[in-house]
Amino acid sequence: MLTGTGILLGLWLPLAAAAQDARTIHTSGVGSVAEVPDMAEVSIGATHEALTAAAALGATSEDLRAVLDVLEAAGIAPRDIATGSVTVQPVRSRGDQSQTEPPRITGFQASNTLSVRVRDIAQVGRVLDAAVQDGANTFNGLRFSFQDPEPLQDRARAAAVRDAMRRAAQLAAASGVTLGPVLKITETDGAPGPSFDMAASARMSDVPVAVGEQTIRVRVEMIFAIDD
């Protein structure tokens, strides 16, 4: 049987533990590093239509072989070239205007795409121009990245921790308490993102390419103890 004292003690212990846990300061910090990318990733390919699937695929393959020769001549290593997709699909007519006649197959369309990493970013425009002139007739996108993002991530991570510690110190000073040691740090992965500073834009060879800057951001959550 619980007495009044036992009930009060049972209620006080969780409250005391909660009060002890509450003597912390929670902050977050963000660090960012902006740099000009040093690598480009390009998606190019060839698409052809023909009466038969074999003819469409053969024409596409012939163009892609020419593109591969161009990439090799430009110094692109085999490890930086990968097939993105190969597709063959029927081409259907629309039928008559009354829509009483169902669509019928009139031919086939074949597509083959390549994903190419260009590590010498100054060659991006020349590589694109040469590939289009020698067989590529589809361009599916271009994005810039970093060959080795880890040093940039390290700098952004250190800046994020400094930012969180600065915020914690400010909160402690404003509330009249003493900031204690770090109890927990949690990192949110950062990822490159485009910035609005296009100072590094340049016209490269025959195809104009604006590189710009990309920003790597890291966010951390930190918990500090409050010293007595």
Automatic annotation (TrEMBL):
Keyword rRNA processing attached: no
N-terminal signal peptide: 1-19
Lipid metabolism in keyword set: no
Pfam families: SIMPL
Renumbered residue ranges of the record's region Disordered: 87-106
UniProtKB keywords: Signal
Top-level taxon of origin: Bacteria
InterPro entries: 26kDa_periplasmic_antigen (IPR052022), SIMPL/DUF541 (IPR007497)
Polar residues bias locations: 87-101
GO BP, one annotated term: DNA damage response
Protein name in the entry: SIMPL domain-containing protein
Organism annotation: Roseobacter ponti
Lineage: Bacteria, Pseudomonadati, Pseudomonadota, Alphaproteobacteria, Rhodobacterales
